[in-house]
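TEACHING EXERCISE
Course module: macromolecular assemblies
Task: Read the component lines below, then compare them to the predicted structure of the full complex.
Student: A.B.
Group: 4
Components provided:
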Amino acid sequence: MESRKVILSAPDGLHARPAGELVKLVKGFTGSSVSITAGGRTVNAASMLSLLSLGLKCGSELEIGVHGGDEAAVLDAVTSFIQSINA
Amino acid sequence: MKVSGPAKLWEKKRSGAAVRSFDESYGLVHAELARQAETEPVFAAHLEILEDPMLQDAVHDGIASGLSEPAALEAARGSIVSMFDSIDDEYLRARADDVRDVFARLGAAMCGDDTSSGGILLTKGCILVADELLPSDTSLIDFASVAGILCHRGSTTSHVCIIAHSKGIPMQMGADISGIHDGDIVEVDDPLVGGIGDIVSRIRAAGRKLYINAGNLDDLCEGMAAGADGVGLFRTEFLFLRRDSIPGRDEQRAIYRDALLACGGKPLTLRTLDVGGDKQLPYVPMPAEENPFLGLRGIRFCLANLDLFRLQLGGALDAAGDVRRMHAEWFADGSPLRLMLPMVCRADEIRQVKDILCSLDPDYGNLLSLGIMIETPAAVLDVESLASESAFFSVGTNDLTQYVMAADRGNGSVAYLYDPMASPVLKALDITVKAAHSAGIPVGICGELASDVRAVPVLLDLGFDSLSLSRL
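Instructor-supplied answer key:
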């Protein structure tokens, strides 16, 4: 499993719209399962309910984990998406 | 609050036993939502929630652990909704309603009811009539369609009633519902919703100050007698309007002294003369302006008419001096007299007033505290500078809304823009509260919004220290 820690810089945190986009992105990687860990909880990044339940705010530290498939490439794609959320 | 509307009888169609499995119900609801999502974006969000693996996993886990299918659904609903409710973010908390909605549909489908509103099909604005509503019924009621609830049995502390009240829906218990048929026009009377008592109890429960607005001494005495913690806005225009000469310093001194005495040591927020705009003084020449609301009004008018302004400031200082001689104890923790300047845009305006006060009495700082109204976009955008010159803030939501939205509140064709709960106005409120608190000064609200039952929870959440109501 590949993993990486990032700090969420989106000013409004991970709210419904970017969470929905993240779910779409993650569902596109059919061979990989992606998880997000924050505040001691690990959730499935393909579940919007789970993502929202983390209550991620601007400045929250989260860890992206990728299992299966082209782990490095998926990790890069998810990382750059999370870092690009700016609203 | 009293509401009336067509009655809709709550009939239990369920036998208690599920008639469909979760998986079968899921398929039905999924098909129905997919169809509705094509036309209504809100249902697309519901579809996404329905398709979420967390939801299905939670129910399947419950069933696997030995729960009955309806019990597993209820357990999953409870755990997911409580997860949302605990999130410290208003937007996300509101998504819990979408989750409830999806679970309500699943619950209805499992019980053999195919209506999209859950338990029974409710028309918008109906009065739900029931013998008794149980906690488990809550998820089956589409509260968005319900204007009021009439019950034979139940209490104000029941789950359904708490939920209804949290949504501002009146609910009356102990009603005789026999003889009511679907479609009969019935009335619900619930003093706990929409009334001033609801607002007062919310402010008290949040531990904030409850002030009143007063336009004359009678209003003021009445409000204080009703238990206000002080006066958040004492309009002084009544002294100046409907007469043909400027009220003298001694005349003003007597009125302000009576007002301070009526407050009994509690704060009196005296707003300096706020004319211009739509209010004219017959004895002060005021040239016609093309845009009176962007013209010489509020503090601008006073600073342009210093002779008149000095009389008011002098009268206020004299009154505070009189009262201090009578009740020195009221001044032990600072003066109860709060002088409030309207329409401030620049810190310089506050400094000019301080210079005048100082010229009238160098000890003015012990006689009154000087604060401002926040009601212009300039004041919000430069709020830190203003905070450094002010002892308190009070937001006038009526003018602030009109200036932020650039919409005349008297102009019906732009009335849709004049919304004090619009996001730009709420952002302005949020900025103001944060700046005040980081400067260590109290911030209140004295516009009509503070008397709006729908707005009060939001204002309390934003952190306002005091809400000043038009009436108690």
